[in-house]
Amino acid sequence: MDPVKLCVKRSKDERKRQDNNEGEEEEDEDQEGLLDFRHSQEAEHTKQASSPIHSQRQGNASIGPAEREAFKLREKLTALENQVVREQNEKDRLREHLLQAQRELHISQTNLKEAEDSLGAIRERVASNEKALADQKEKLKAAHLDQKVGARKSRQRFDAAIDFMKGLLVETKFETLVQTLKSRLRMIVGAERAEIYVVDRQREELIAYRERTGARRPQPNGSNLWMGRFPMDTGIVGSVILDKTMQVVQEVEKDVRFDALVDGIGSNGVRSLVVYPILMRQEVVATVVVVNKLSPNGRVAGDTFTTQDISAVQDFATLTTLVFLQQQIGKTRSASSASLRQLNANASDAEEESDDDSHR
């Protein structure tokens, strides 16, 4: 094949390879083929130039059109090779830019994900803080309401104490004072029932004054109360008398000590109770019992006694102690009056006997 045609063919093949974006290995092979062709052409030209015939032709005649055309084609081929190299360099540069852009995109995506995670964490903290703030507001609101309720109950306890102290100055019947105390205690604490048991140490019994119901026989003094007696060691009340400590039982059905007649004040429907001992000279002289905390609608719904309720029980236990002191003072006064009357009677009898002796 003619070398010129071969060169043209190879140039066309090179353009075709560039247009079809073939791999780098094929381009390198084509470049090596072109270089081999150039080397072979240069070697052929050198061989012809060194031959006698070529020297004679060169000396005798000018270069022919074919050789000039081949020279031009070689120049074009060189230009094409340079263009291929430049395009390859540009392709490498673009590839490097693309890789750099991909790396930057990956870094940006990573930073974006981290920013989204941070934003999510911030939102969670904000939501948690808002929830904590709402809970704190609810607690403050509940505490404020408890303070108002506590202040109202304290006022009621104070008024009840004043009324009761006034009653102490007027009322002299012990059982009537006890009934008044139980009524006040039931109202202030918010309990379904209340009872006060007086301890009879001599007979080891508990004495309770309760309103007469049904066919119970009336008292000789016409009172509407009857006096019940129970063994002193009965139920939770008996344990309190023995231990001399208060008992707060919020789940009565689980306490094996429970006695319906004493602890439940005659009823089995007991859910919670408070038993508080009244001490005088380190001895239990009575116990205060409150049964079943009432809900705001006035029903037994399983509510438990609060610290304010227990404080009210303690306050009324103090008032009950005053009742016992008044009773003892009354008994002492009665005994003193009886002794004084007896002394006066004895003195009168002695004077009469002395007068009789003098007349004799």
Automatic annotation (TrEMBL):
SMART domains reported for this sequence: GAF
Compositionally biased spans, kind Polar residues: 48-61
Composition skew (Basic and acidic residues), residue ranges: 10-20, 35-47
The UniProt record lists the keyword Coiled coil: yes
InterPro entries: GAF, GAF-like_dom_sf
UniProt cross-references to SUPFAM superfamilies, sorted A to Z: GAF domain-like
Superkingdom: Eukaryota
Record key words, sorted: Coiled coil
Transmembrane feature ranges: none
Coiled-coil ranges (or none): 70-118
Domain GAF: from-to ranges: 169-334
Compositionally biased residues, Acidic residues: 21-33, 349-360
Name of the protein: cGMP-specific 3',5'-cyclic phosphodiesterase
Species this chain originates from: Hondaea fermentalgiana
